[in-house]
């Protein structure tokens, strides 16, 4: 039969009292003797010093022997110890009647430094008792003897034992006196706890209407009962909250772009979201088990459940590249509960990754080509293979041209890095937009003519308003777009610059003959992207990305469209208004 909380608590309290009493007595018995001896030493030391002073008076002839003996022996009870007085040569001058420890006292006098002028106090190592000794000095502070008081150990033990007996009796009476209040206090504590335990068992069986009594016991037990009484309401609320959270989680899973599939240990699908069916090529009203790509997933899931290890693999469905991750799921008891499948569409990510790899290859080529040219030309000059001055100047021109090409590439990379850092702030002010557009058109006229093309400035000076922007950055934007048009437009075609006011914006356009594939339009402003990969020397794919960053920092917009047989880049600029 199990013991009750009351009996266990009562037993523990009684045992604690008894053990505490026994430990107190034992500790007192161990350390009490030395403590008592130290107390007796402190008591005897002033008496020994007084004995030394009287003996000094006697030994120097200022006190008669009879008076000295009468003072020392007749009033011997004042010492409460055996008295021993020695002369410097070791002769016994005085001792109390019945003294039996002359040799011990003499040993301390002779061997422990009293004769050298040192006072001693000690619990004798041989167990004789407590002894204190003081040297006797004459008027010139010369040691002429020693005075000792010795308290026998038997007298110390007798006093100590009496204290121990008194301590045991006091502890026993205290324990007996505490049993009654301990009994009633234990009953008062355990009774409401038993009531709470019964209430908890009923709640555990699902009945949350039961209530514990709150008016019994201490404040802590009252709080515990109140907590149990609110447990039913809290659990009901928690169940409702969990239901809401489950529905919310189901909504979130259903709205995810990634596909989620839950599979049990038997290979049956327990739950999945619409994205999983869509990514596998089906429609929302179709079952995921009917999709052709699901068979490989379920076979891999069986392998994951069997080996309890994660698996990842790729799968191609139509024009999509899917990354499928399958992880084992464990229950709260550490047992395997099945597996969860995550289906991700990585088509766009893989395309961007391929674009980045191509960009790295292009930049590496662009860097390697001028460096190789510069090195070969420098080697030829260094080896004195170029004989005439004209050829040398021609080689120097080649080196300068390749150096400038390399510098432009590095400048583009650094400019894009500065723009992407987010540490630049463009100062806006009133800008003569027409002056900037016409200046850029004029500068690129000769370059366009050299490439068999021409610049057409279709902007009316009188109808081109001032704008509120950064003139340097707007000029940089136009340079990038016009240069891009010259590089990629069809041979012999015009490049037209237009400006149209719309609401509070001035829309500036650069138009050239050509066409951009629909799949490339959304990616033209991405870093590392080149739509026309056949133009090997047409740039590094950084110009439009720089333009996009500038527009973003100016809080404006830029877009590109195919309009009839032309490619049109258009960006907006805020029209300046007098405030």
Roughly how much helix do the residues carry, as a percent range? 40-55%
The poorly predicted ranges are none
Instruction: State the end-to-end distance.
Output: 95 Å
Overall pLDDT level: 76
Proportion of residues in β-strands: 15-25%
Shape: elongated
What value does the Rg take, in angstroms?
A: 53 Å
CATH topology value of the largest domain: Beta-Lactamase
> In what order do the strands lie side by side in the largest sheet?
2-1-5-4-3
Number of strands: 17
What does this structure look like?
This protein folds into four domains: 5-160, 2-Layer Sandwich (Beta-Lactamase); 256-345, 2-Layer Sandwich (Beta-Lactamase), CATH 3.30.450.20; 350-421, Orthogonal Bundle (Helix Hairpins); 429-574, Histidine kinase-like ATPase, C-terminal domain (Heat Shock Protein 90). Helices cover 53% and strands 20% of the residues. The chain contains 13 helices and 17 strands. It has helices at residues 5-59, 65-74, 102-111, 153-204, 219-255, 274-279, 294-307, 347-382, 389-421, 433-450, 471-488, 518-521, 543-553, and strands at residues 82-87, 92-95, 120-123, 129-137, 143-152, 259-263, 269-272, 311-317, 320-330, 336-345, 429-431, 454-458, 467-469, 494-502, 505-513, 558-563, 566-574. The strands form four sheets. A five-stranded antiparallel sheet has the order 2-1-5-4-3. A five-stranded antiparallel sheet has the order 7-6-10-9-8. A five-stranded mixed sheet has the order 12-14-15-17-16. It is elongated and about 150 Å long. The mean pLDDT is 76.
């Amino acid at each position: 039969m199990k013991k009750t909380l009351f009996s266990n608590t009562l037993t523990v309290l009684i045992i604690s009292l008894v053990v505490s009493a026994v430990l107190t007595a034992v500790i007192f018995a161990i350390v009490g003797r030395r403590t008592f001896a130290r107390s007796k030493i402190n008591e005897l030391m002033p008496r020994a010093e007084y004995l030394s002073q009287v003996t000094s008076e006697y030994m120097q002839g200022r006190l008669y022997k009879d008076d000295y003996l009468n003072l020392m022996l007749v009033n011997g009870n004042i010492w409460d110890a055996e008295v021993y007085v020695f002369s410097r040569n070791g002769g016994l001058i005085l001792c109390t009647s019945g003294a039996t420890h002359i040799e011990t006292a003499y040993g301390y006098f002779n061997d422990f430094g009293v004769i050298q002028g040192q006072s001693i106090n000690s619990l004798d190592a041989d167990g004789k008792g407590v002894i204190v000794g003081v040297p006797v000095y004459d008027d010139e502070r010369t040691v002429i003897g020693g005075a000792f008081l010795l308290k026998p150990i038997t007298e110390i033990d007798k006093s100590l034992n009496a204290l121990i007996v008194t301590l045991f009796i006091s502890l026993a009476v205290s324990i007996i006196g505490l049993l009654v209040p301990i009994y009633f206090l234990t009953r008062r504590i355990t009774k409401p706890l038993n009531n709470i335990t019964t209430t908890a068992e009923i709640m555990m069986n699902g009945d949350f209407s039961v209530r514990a009594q709150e008016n019994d016991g201490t404040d802590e037990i009252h709080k515990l009962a109140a907590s149990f009484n609110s447990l039913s309401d809290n659990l009901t609320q928690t169940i409702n909250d969990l239901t809401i959270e489950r529905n919310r989680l189901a909504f979130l899973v259903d709205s995810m772009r990634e596909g989620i599939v839950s599979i049990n240990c038997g290979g049956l699908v327990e739950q999945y979201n619409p994205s999983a069916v869509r990514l596998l090529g089906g429609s929302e009203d179709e079952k995921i088990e009917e999709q052709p790509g699901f068979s490989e997933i379920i076979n891999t899931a069986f392998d994951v459940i069997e080996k309890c290890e994660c698996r990842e693999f790729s799968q191609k469905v139509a024009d999509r590249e899917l990354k499928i991750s399958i992880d084992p799921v464990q229950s709260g008891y550490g047992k395997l509960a099945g597996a969860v499948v995550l289906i991700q569409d990585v088509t766009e990510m893989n395309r961007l990754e391929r674009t980045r790899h191509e960009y790295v290859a292009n930049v590496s080529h662009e860097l390697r080509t001028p460096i190789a040219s510069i090195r070969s030309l420098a080697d030829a000059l260094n080896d004195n293979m170029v004989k005439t001055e004209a050829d040398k100047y021609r080689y120097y021109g080649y080196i300068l041209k390749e150096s400038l090409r390399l510098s432009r590439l590095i400048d583009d990379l650094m400019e894009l890095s500065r723009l992407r850092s987010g540490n630049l702030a463009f100062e806006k002010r009133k800008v003569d937009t027409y002056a900037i557009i016409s200046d850029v058109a004029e500068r690129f006229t000769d370059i366009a003519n050299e490439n068999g093309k021409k610049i057409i400035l279709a902007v009316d000076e009188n109808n081109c308003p001032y704008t509120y922007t950064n003139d340097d950055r707007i000029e940089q934007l136009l340079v990038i777009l016009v240069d891009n048009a010259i590089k990629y437009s069809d041979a012999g075609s015009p490049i037209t610059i237009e400006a149209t006011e719309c609401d509070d914006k001035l829309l500036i356009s650069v138009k050239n003959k050509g066409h951009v594939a629909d799949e490339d339009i959304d990616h033209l402003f991405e870093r590392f992207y080149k739509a026309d990969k056949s133009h090997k020397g047409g740039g590094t794919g950084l110009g439009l990305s720089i333009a996009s960053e500038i527009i973003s920092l100016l809080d404006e917009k830029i877009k590109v469209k195919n309009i009839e047989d032309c490619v049109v880049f258009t960006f907006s600029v805020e029209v300046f208004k007098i405030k």
